[in-house]
Amino acid sequence: MARKVLYERSGLPDNHVSRNFLETLRRNVRVRKYSYWSVVYESGVVTQQLGSVCIFVLCWWLMETGTLVPSQLFTSSLALSFLGYYLYDVIDGGTGRRCSGRTRLADLKSVLIFLSFTYGLSPLLKTLTETISTDTIYAMTTFMLLGHLLFFDYGANAAIVSSGLSLNMALFASVCLASRLAGPLHTFTLITFACELFALWPLLQKKLKKQSTGCHGMLTVLFAVVVVTALAMVAPACAALAIVLLFLLSFLIPLWLVKLQLYKDNIHGPWDEAEIKDDLSGVLH
Amino acid sequence: MPHSICMVSDFFHPNAGGVESHVYQLSQCLVERGHRVVVVTHAYGDRAGIRYLTNGLRVYYLPLRPMYNQATAPTLFHSLALLRCVFIREHVTVVHAHSAFSSLAHDALFHAASFGLASIFTDHSLFGFADVSSVLTNALLRASLGGATRAICVSHTGRENTALRAAMPPGRISVIPNAVDATRFTPGPPTGNPDSTCHDRAHLPRSVDRRCAGVTVVIISRLVYRKGVDLLAGVLAQLAATRSDLNFVIGGEGPKRIVLEELREQHCLHDRVTLLGALDHRQVRDVLVGGDIFLNTSLTEAFCMAIVEAASCGLQVVSTHVGGVPEVLPPDLLTLCKPTVRDLCAGVIAAADRLLAGKAPDRATTHARVRDFYDWRDVASRTEKVSNDDSSQNDN
């Protein structure tokens, strides 16, 4: 058998194919086996985020039509936030707080600063997009919310994931929508609500998912039920669409993903670019 | 039977690099063997039209604009008229295209097939199969190598890679390594170059003058991600902290230079890490002989000329175990390491200890061995054989 070296002439012709040709080829080295139900369970993150977006738009719509009074939304969302804040500390027994070293007073201060600034700026935000046509606003909101869903950190380690961009897009959408509401108080309420829903809730959501599997499943079902019933009250056609979409997301697409694994054909060999496995964060900035 | 060979590649002098020197050296040696050789590349700045190099080697700088990384736009047809003109005018019988990154080479292969000319493709690089850019380039390669009759790869690993990427039967791919001009890479004091001015000297590492002060590690490569500059930074940081007798000289330029400069600032290594910046090809030897150990941290490499040049100057070579590197030098001249900081540090330290203990092989002996491994004339005669097979096949 010819040795694979270049510094010695073996006497064989240069295009000789020896038996050890491609002996180092490896196929599907890093393929993960998916089980259908675990994929369904994991798809809950997407369902929940889609639910958050739907709930946000629904609240805006209810305020736009006057069904929902700003004070109601504000008080209920604030109450839920405090409940979430309490839960956030309780579920890990306060270890997270001890590690970060933040006091409750500091948290309260940030909340107050944020609320007062949003309150003070809300008349400005209200009139910010006055010169822009409503259709443009709706189109922008749609794109921004879709972008939010696209870039959201669902827990995958991929280049497209960017929580910062995702949050910014959601807040941009909320400013767009809020500026079409009746008064500054409406604007203030909607933006506060958006922050609670898009910035704070995902933190708690991630922690809940890590702590208990049952809780994540229940939350997913809860989100799906809330979204579908709320949509059914406002627009039955949308509710039907939402049901189809949720079904696709939670059952059909996972099935597709599992089935597609059969066709995976990855080849690896010595020609692959080496991966740097060391942690170089101390050296690189 | 003498051929009229047309070398086509986007990469040629005045650009500097592995492919460029390969094309030049191979052309010169083929001319020496009695073939008629022309080189076709795109215009570099105002260097357009026909130029003549040593031994009357004619170079066509076609007036095409480079699009990305010195490669022309992959449109397939905008070079047709010019290439046709060259093929007819030079009575070309064999088209020899170089490098998968060169669009002009792909164009030439395609047009050669349509003119019924024999065509050879030399692949100088390795590609993976996982990321988008390689998937696209591999598709392009499969299309353009459909017309090529033969391919040449610079290492066995390269051949396996090309056979898979281009879906080409391996019997049509020959393995012909690169070579090194051993007469230019000799051990000895760094004075042999009459071109180097006082200014050049000032650039050279101080360690040239104070050999006894410790061990000098030389790194010469383009400072880009694929050459493992991040890994190099990790290795430098660790070695500088643990071994005070090691000095580092880094030659080369690139976007990752900032990583090394930051490292030097952060760890206050100005007296031990010298960054030389871009090196002229003729300066390389002088920098090499100023060192004791050559370190290569590439993440992927089809052949790696640099380690052969370093070994030819008699240095101890430490390299990552990637691609075709293990095929290039015998194990006693090359320390192979896994691409991790720990392993590379261990490799360099082992080599340094060997040197300090006086157990390292003599530079002149190493040079003499490497000189026998690779020779451009040998490469040219093997390439000629491929051309002969190729055109006889075409005649049938």
UniProtKB/TrEMBL annotation, chain A:
InterPro entries: Plno_GlcNAc_GPI2 (IPR009450). Its main location: membrane. This is Phosphatidylinositol glycan anchor biosynthesis class C. Keywords: GPI-anchor biosynthesis, Membrane, Transmembrane, Transmembrane helix. The chain crosses the membrane at residues 36-63, 69-88, 137-156, 188-204, 216-234, 240-258. Signal peptide: none annotated. Pathway: Glycolipid biosynthesis; glycosylphosphatidylinositol-anchor biosynthesis. PANTHER family: PHOSPHATIDYLINOSITOL GLYCAN, CLASS C, PHOSPHATIDYLINOSITOL N-ACETYLGLUCOSAMINYLTRANSFERASE SUBUNIT C. GO terms for cellular component: glycosylphosphatidylinositol-N-acetylglucosaminyltransferase (GPI-GnT) complex. GO terms for biological process: GPI anchor biosynthetic process. It is a multi-pass membrane protein. It holds the Pfam family GPI2. Belongs to the PIGC family. The lineage of its organism: Eukaryota, Metazoa, Chordata, Craniata, Vertebrata. It is found in: Membrane.
Automatic annotation (TrEMBL), chain B:
It comes from the Eukaryota. Residues 42-131 form the PIGA GPI anchor biosynthesis domain. The keyword Transferase applies. One of its GO terms (cellular component) is glycosylphosphatidylinositol-N-acetylglucosaminyltransferase (GPI-GnT) complex. GO terms for molecular function: phosphatidylinositol N-acetylglucosaminyltransferase activity. CDD domains: GT4_PIG-A-like. Its EC number is 2.4.1.198. InterPro entries: Glyco_trans_1, PIG-A/GPI3, PIGA_GPI_anchor_biosynthesis. Residues 216-330 form the Glycosyl transferase family domain. GO terms for biological process: GPI anchor biosynthetic process. This is phosphatidylinositol N-acetylglucosaminyltransferase.
